[in-house]
Amino acid sequence: MRHFVAVVAASAFAGSALAGFSGGVSSFTSLNDFYKIGPSIGKWPSGWVSYVVSEGFSGFSNSNSVTKLQGGAGWSQWVLTASQGTMSVESGVAIANEVGAGLSFDLGPALGSSGSGLHGFGGDFGFRDANGKRVAGTVELTLSTGDALVHEISPMNSFAGFWSLDAGVTITGMTLRPLGTAGENYRATVDNLYFGFAGVPAPGALALLGMAGAAASGKRRR
Length: 222
What we know:
The protein is mainly β. The chain has one domain. 10% of the residues lie in helices and 42% in strands.
């Protein structure tokens, strides 16, 4: 059974640990702060290192009806599905087709490492009404402990990122849910994704992650 902690607004970089989780979970509305915290935590076991890499949907062909999207390149494997109906991919953005439908990520463990999975996850998550105007929504983060954290996304800031500060607690999933009723015609969208990995990389993993990070550095956020 999952336990929930509601967070109305993401906290700032300093003092952003949330109560109710072993070791704490930090939430961010700033991508720069999300990038900074992984290497600076200083709580990983001896020999562990941390990375942040990004991935998007620009490599997927435009489509009006998709039941599943998946990706990952050595640090994590992810699968994205809609809570009901299908998704569309438009110019590198994944969109739920059904009004009021949520989008859910299943996040697999990091490959080729002694770490048990992702410690950081974030992205450009959005919710739009029938006229394309940004509206508020929520993200529900699930952890390997079975706990869940609910965070509200403001229409003014679509980025939401999280770090688990406990080496033994990883992020296993995230669900985007529109606020309000389905009749309000909200649609969930996902653009850029950011993955925080902490662990001991297998031979070759550093080069792989370095290449992924270099490729992502030239990608502009939407």
